[in-house]
């Protein structure tokens, strides 16, 4: 039939026509058209994760049909997103900066796989800083570190209504999205290992006093896990904060052995103290592990490089960072997420622990 006035040949079905200029087609448009999550489109584009051939072909077909071009500027304009997340990491006294930066690097590298940059906020501004960041159009969501048990930022997070994830747990995580190592269980695992070797008197050399004084969550949760497990297993336990430096470590060890000459187990949750503890014990007449067994809660690199190699519960910085970014992206895209993600600790037995001396 000939074309009538106003007809210009056959029309494409609605689903086959771009609904907007190709320059303004977003990754969300592609995901909606292909019937997949935004993260799936991102993985197809980046090749960072295996996607089934069927799904990959469907996504690529949608990209071609919609004329999508992965241009960050056009995506941000069309979606009204900044493609930036804020990592709020106040640098405070007692923090082990090299360890903290492992978490930060995991966040940065993971964010890049989903085409987001990271704004690192290190000033300790508390709620006012959060309000300032959230009120701007600079970021799509917030990641918070160094979470305290009674963190002054938490009430504001509940009010802001902006996507946010905490790397750490406050005392009351209701209404929040949190991810971290299960530090309570990590402390218990250390006690269970030492008790299983026959050690009946153990001590925790923990973070500097400032970390406990401001109520930092990981330190308190570890301490509580150690005390709970020790009470359950009938193990005598003492917890002592430990400042940085060989002199401070030596002072703590001398005082511990004066109190308990037969103490035979140590748990160290202070990366800067690992080396000094292992170096000081022999100077006090205690061999490791023949006289004193030592367990660390620290990154694997500290444990592997120690002499002797340290039995430890590692800090899964990379996994925590990946989980935090994944949860935040799901919230940014309106997807449901679990309130709590606790990573199970794993104990790696090396050369620093052995049966208790008889």
UniProtKB/TrEMBL annotation:
Coiled coil region boundaries: none
Positions of the HTH lacI-type domain: 25-79
Entries under InterPro entries matching the protein: HTH_LacI, LacI/GalR-like_sensor, Lambda_DNA-bd_dom_sf, Peripla_BP_I
One of the record's GO molecular function terms: DNA-binding transcription factor activity
Keyword field: DNA-binding, Transcription, Transcription regulation
Domain of life, source organism: Bacteria
Pfam families: LacI, Peripla_BP_3
Keyword field contains Transcription: yes
PANTHER family: LACI-RELATED TRANSCRIPTIONAL REPRESSOR, LACTOSE OPERON REPRESSOR
Protein name: Transcriptional regulator, LacI family
Native source organism of the sequence: Micromonospora haikouensis
């Amino acid at each position: 039939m000939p074309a009538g006035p106003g007809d210009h040949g056959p029309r494409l079905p609605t689903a086959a026509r771009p609904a907007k200029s190709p320059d303004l087609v977003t990754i969300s448009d592609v995901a909606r058209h292909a019937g997949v999550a935004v993260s799936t489109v991102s993985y197809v584009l980046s090749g960072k994760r295996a996607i089934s051939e069927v799904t990959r072909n469907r996504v690529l077909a949608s990209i071609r049909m919609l004329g999508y071009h992965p241009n960050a500027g056009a995506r941000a304009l069309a979606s009204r997103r900044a493609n930036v997340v804020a990592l709020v990491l106040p640098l405070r006294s007692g923090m082990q900066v090299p360890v903290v930066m492992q978490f930060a690097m995991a966040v940065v590298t993971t964010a890049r796989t989903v085409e987001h940059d990271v704004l690192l906020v290190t000033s300790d501004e508390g709620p006012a800083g959060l309000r300032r960041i959230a009120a701007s159009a600079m970021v799509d969501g917030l990641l918070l570190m160094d979470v305290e048990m009674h963190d002054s930022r938490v009430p504001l997070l509940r009010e802001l209504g902006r996507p946010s994830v905490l790397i750490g747990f406050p005392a009351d995580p209701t209404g929040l999205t949190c991810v971290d190592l299960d530090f309570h269980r990590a402390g218990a695992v250390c006690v269970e290992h030492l008790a299983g070797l026959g050690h009946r008197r153990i001590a925790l050399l923990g973070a500097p006093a400032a970390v406990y004084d401001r109520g930092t969550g990981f330190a308190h949760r570890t301490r509580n896990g150690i005390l709970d497990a020790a009470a359950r297993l009938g193990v005598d336990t003492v917890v002592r904060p430990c400042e940085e430096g060989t002199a401070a470590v030596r002072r703590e060890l001398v005082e511990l052995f004066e109190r308990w000459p037969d103490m035979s187990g140590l748990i160290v949750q202070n990366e800067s103290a690992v080396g000094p503890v292992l170096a000081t014990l022999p100077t006090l007449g205690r061999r490791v592990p023949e006289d004193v067994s030592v367990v660390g809660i620290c990154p694997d690199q500290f444990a592997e490089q120690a002499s002797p190699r340290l039995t430890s519960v590692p800090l899964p910085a990379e996994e925590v960072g990946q989980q935090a970014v994944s949860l935040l992206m799901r919230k940014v895209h309106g997807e449901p997420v679990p309130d709590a993600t606790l990573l199970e600790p794993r104990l790696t037995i090396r050369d620093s622990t052995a049966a208790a001396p008889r």
